[in-house]
From TrEMBL:
<feature type="transmembrane region" description="Helical">
    <location>
        <begin position="153"/>
        <end position="177"/>
    </location>
</feature>
<dbReference type="Pfam" id="PF00892">
    <property type="entry name" value="EamA"/>
</dbReference>
<feature type="transmembrane region" description="Helical">
    <location>
        <begin position="250"/>
        <end position="270"/>
    </location>
</feature>
<protein>
    <recommendedName>
        <fullName>EamA domain-containing protein</fullName>
    </recommendedName>
</protein>
<feature type="transmembrane region" description="Helical">
    <location>
        <begin position="276"/>
        <end position="294"/>
    </location>
</feature>
<keyword id="KW-0472">Membrane</keyword>
<feature type="transmembrane region" description="Helical">
    <location>
        <begin position="184"/>
        <end position="202"/>
    </location>
</feature>
<feature type="domain" description="EamA">
    <location>
        <begin position="154"/>
        <end position="293"/>
    </location>
</feature>
<feature type="domain" description="EamA">
    <location>
        <begin position="5"/>
        <end position="140"/>
    </location>
</feature>
<keyword id="KW-1133">Transmembrane helix</keyword>
<dbReference type="InterPro" id="IPR000620">
    <property type="entry name" value="EamA_dom"/>
</dbReference>
<feature type="transmembrane region" description="Helical">
    <location>
        <begin position="37"/>
        <end position="56"/>
    </location>
</feature>
<feature type="transmembrane region" description="Helical">
    <location>
        <begin position="222"/>
        <end position="243"/>
    </location>
</feature>
<feature type="transmembrane region" description="Helical">
    <location>
        <begin position="124"/>
        <end position="141"/>
    </location>
</feature>
<keyword id="KW-0812">Transmembrane</keyword>
<dbReference type="InterPro" id="IPR037185">
    <property type="entry name" value="EmrE-like"/>
</dbReference>
<feature type="transmembrane region" description="Helical">
    <location>
        <begin position="68"/>
        <end position="93"/>
    </location>
</feature>
Length: 295
């Protein structure tokens, strides 16, 4: 199917935009720790069911040690360590600047894919990626005076670390997907690794019961469930299809469009002011994304 990878990447961005809204609403009710663990527990249950229905078994035991290792490490980096680093950056420098730093992920992804898989990009695609990333950065950047952050450089380093961690996680996933391995099986392994890591962490720190106890909030649980389905379940499966059916740099760039997709949602749902720079940045990002399909 032509442009399957690129289309999957765009759908991934839409899924991540939706689940970020769900997790924002839920997080304001029960806290980010409960959201983080709850979404993975729900995603794990859903992925086991999907795997049973689609592939006839609850878990891909035939994956082999090497593939389990690559995908397990990818889940640990993406779902446990990567999110922890990114959430800390949110605390230190805010979501807007952290999201701006996350736009470095496609650049890291393209470089790592070139180093490990010899994936190359044409000059036209590189220019289209630059245009798309510039548009995303313009949307995320508020265009005015920035709030002073006492831990600015620490937050910047954590934000860059989050972007790099996301790219490394995707590269590990690409190793695990080698040989036509099912994205559904790959995601189940990743979610399992991330869930086990968080359960061990909260158990070791004595926070497991309190974290799970907050799930008694029915409204928050409903939003976490929707976010889990559109994020760690559908969104991640689509992202694995994207990186396996198109170049890493192009897929990562298109998946970074979530802030652009979120713009009208933020305006109408959270009543955030949308300035002219955000509208122009959106048009620039969409133009660059469209170009990636045709150059």
């Amino acid at each position: 199917m032509p442009y399957l990878g690129e289309s999957a990447a765009l759908l991934t961005a839409a899924c991540w935009a939706l689940n970020s809204v769900c997790f924002t609403v839920a997080g304001r009710r029960v806290g980010s720790a409960s959201v983080n663990l709850g979404r993975l527990l729900m995603a794990l249950a859903a992925m086991i069911l999907v795997h049973q229905v689609a592939l006839g078994s609850p878990f891909p035991l035939q994956a082999g040690a090497a593939r389990l290792g690559w995908l397990g490490a990818s889940g640990l980096i993406g779902f446990a360590l990567g999110d922890a680093v990114l959430f800390e950056a949110f605390v230190l420098i805010g979501a807007r600047l952290s999201m701006l730093l996350m736009t470095l992920s496609p650049i890291f992804s393209a470089l790592l894919a070139w180093m490990f898989f010899r994936q190359s990009l044409s000059l036209a695609k590189i220019l289209a990626m630059v245009v798309t990333l510039a548009g995303i950065a313009w949307v995320v950047w508020d265009g005015g005076e920035q709030e002073a952050h006492p831990h600015l450089w620490r937050g910047i380093l954590l934000g860059i670390g989050g972007a790099f961690g996301q790219s490394v996680g995707m590269i590990f996933s690409l190793f695990g997907l080698a040989g036509g391995f099912s994205p559904i099986s790959a995601n189940l392994i990743r979610v399992s690794a991330g869930t086990i890591a968080l359960l061990l962490y909260f158990g070791a720190t004595g926070r497991l019961r309190g974290t799970l106890g907050s799930m008694r909030d029915g409204r928050a649980t409903a939003f976490i469930a929707l976010g889990a389905l559109t994020g760690p379940v559908l969104g991640v499966v689509l992202s694995l299809i994207a990186i396996s059916r198109s170049s890493m740099g192009v897929a990562a760039t298109l998946m970074s469009l979530s802030p652009v997709i979120l713009l009208p949602v933020s305006h109408f749902t959270f009543k955030e002011k949308v300035g002219g720079h955000a509208i122009l940045g959106t048009l620039l990002a969409l133009a660059g994304a469209a170009a990636l399909f045709f150059v």
